[in-house]
Amino acid sequence: MGKPIVAIVGRPNVGKSTLFNKLAGKRISIVEDTPGVTRDRIYAEAEWLKYNFTIIDTGGIEPDSEDIILAQMRRQAQIAIETAHVIIFLVDGKSGLAPADYEVAQMLRKSNKPVVLVVNKVDRAALEDNAFEFYNLGIGDPITISASQALGLGDMLDKVVEYFDDIIEEEENDEYIRIAFVGRPNVGKSSLVNKLLGEDRNIVSDIPGTTRDAIDSYLETEEGKFILIDTAGIRRRSKIKDEIEKYSVVRTYTAIERADLCILMIDAEEGVSEQDKKIIGYAHDMSKAIMVIVNKWDLIEKDTNTMVKFKKDLQHELNFMSYAPYLFISALTGQRVQKVLEMAKACYDNYNKRIKTGVLNDVVGKAIMRKEPPVVGTSRLKVFYVTQTGTKPPTFVFFVNNPQALHFSYERYIENQLRESFDFEGTGIKMEFRERKE
């Protein structure tokens, strides 16, 4: 049994994301006055009293809507309900009981899960009596709160954690490999994540930008345990018109920071863009593990050299990360999808690799004998000793006579020697040069 999971559900615009952000202690969900802004489930960790638990923010439920996005939001909320141990059913104490609230209540009764009925937007005593009408839902005693003012949250959480005693704490998530799928809108990130999970986890449609937040999914396979982070696609900044999309850009960069491995997804028909370079360049600068997936490969007319030429062109465009491996897939047909996690695990193992000090100094020593450092100014670099100080990414400290005597071309030479000797395919590495007297 994992950590307790609490899903916050309700019709659109009752304040679910505001409550979620208060409980998470940071702004994770997009909060706007536009109904339907939170379109996917969003996960975060929270704690109350002695309990650590996971909260899920869901898209608002519009029970009778025929709109393709709203219909899929309803499906997402349903999956969240199925996943959760406890459900917070949020209603609006200002606008009062709505027909959609009855529909949501009916859905929750069918789930047979513990439900805590919470009346939001009760930010003054005069509104307290508004809670009584919600007894009509037949869900139990309503608890009044104001998520925006953080009023009544303690009473609400006391009620929620009453249901936790039978749920065992899961082991820490350190054993999970976090993978962020990044790229422009509509390149197939959600389709690939869904294929890997074997369920309709993320909203997939032909409308670009349907994933507006970064979404976490947990997956266990023979290759290991993974957290898959499906991010919003980033358009060029000039095209970012509304506030919602601005938040999504920030969210993608945050997802990259959280990830061990970043997978850049490229549309085979469109190729790599300046925006792709910018996104994955951010991951490269942070020395993350990186791989490149070319999706929709089934749509390309091919001859015997098509893939070789395509890969060569991409490597030229992305020459700042020559260490990244490439995989050509079709998320739609499933072509080579089974290789995604296999390659991801290999990249992660290199990202987490540790080299023995003796072997490391032997390799560096031989590299310096083969090619002596150039004179910079009046000084020539002398390396006394090298040690690996960390992993994720592999980090090496070189103790030298004068760090200013290091020429950038020689630094690149040393990095290439380390890569050739120890197989760091798929991961950035860090090298620091510190002064030490002889």
UniProtKB/TrEMBL annotation:
Start and end residues of each EngA-type G domain: 4-168, 177-352
Listed Gene3D superfamilies: 3.30.300.20, P-loop containing nucleotide triphosphate hydrolases (3.40.50.300)
Domain of life (superkingdom): Bacteria
Keywords for the protein's UniProt record, in alphabetical order: GTP-binding, Nucleotide-binding, Repeat, Ribosome biogenesis
Record: residues binding GTP 1: 10-17, 57-61, 120-123
Function: GTPase that plays an essential role in the late steps of ribosome biogenesis.
Protein name: GTPase Der
Species annotation: Clostridium malenominatum
Gene designation: der
